[in-house]
Fold:
Amino acid sequence: MTSATRPLLLSNVRLPTGEAVSVSIANGHIEALGPNLTPPPGAATEDGGGALLLPGFVEGHTHLDKTHWGRAWYRNEVGPNLVDRIENERAWRKTSAHDAGVQSLALARAFVAAGTTRLRTHVDIDTDAGLRYLEGVLETRHALRDVLDMQIVAFPQSGMLVRPGTQEWLERALAAGADVLGALDPALIDGDPVASLDATFAQAVRHGKPIDIHLHEPGEVGAFTLKLLLDRVEATGMQGRVVVSHAFCLGALPQPEPLLERLARLDVALLTSAPPSRPVPPLKRCRELGVTIFGGNDGIRDTWTPYGTPDMLERAMLIGMRYDLRRDDELAMAFDCVSTAAARGCGFADYGLHAGARADLVLVEAETVAHAVVARPPRKLVVAGGRIVARDGALVGALISAT
Structure:
């Protein structure tokens, strides 16, 4: 992301603590926060009207390359199993006019308009598509490089060992610009958790890339895979560089505590979309033990699911509902899952509301963070990298027609 070209003073806003401040922004970063700041020379000025100031939102897990956002309704008649969904999607992509570049750009722009300034997306890499979907999403990342900090995960959606040749395509994806190595259900999809995890960790270490693994495996099977994964984190020194997405097994085990304690000790983060139909990792206990747990939408309007919107306040609300978070401090915890915790889990640097942080800011008409999560008001103003990119939920300037 490049720096903004003109300083900006954002006045008359309220921090989540309730303090009324101004924000001085230069070179794309926050220079100062405090009452009655003087505008820097040549600065643009913006009166926040007493609105609540939030840091730019973080989408920790989505699939931009799959979405139908903005297209005609997709009639979903897929079978109930994971393999059904994988096969259905592969077949549909072969026969439809779906364009990962066009569709990822449409959804990414909608994310920005709703206040997301950092985003991690998984992109399918397989022996049918090669790098086609990755190339489309790389184009989107380039088009929005000044306003959206995007990490791309090279994701073997159809499995790795079970589809010979996939490892070689993953190598090419990492060389082409993917930031993170993905993986999927080493036991139930690849059929050999030891060999699958060994291959994934060897590849990640060789390329110096972090790992983000989809772990849908339930109960004891998932726990077994997770133990193997943690063994490899410890053996390879990849503490702080691994995310386990979904981790449904942790919500089904009668005694998850030993695994949670080990996750904390090895600094392995967890991602949850807080689905209503599956077990979920215990949010409060994770936080008590020091496990980074954060949120994401997963797929949005694709062949897998008709649900989802690119609004991280809505995702925070859904996290709150799934975990029965009702108190204001608990709803602030839900917001943390799509802000500070997500930035930490994904490794996005210079994040937050403090001097030196990158100037990614969102203004909303809300009394508190809890109020913002529940009411999900229109985004009054979105600032990304120090420049105003959206007003009242709509993109502004060159972003209106960006392609």
About this structure: The longest strand covers residues 44-55. The chain has a mean pLDDT of 96. The longest helix spans residues 219-236.
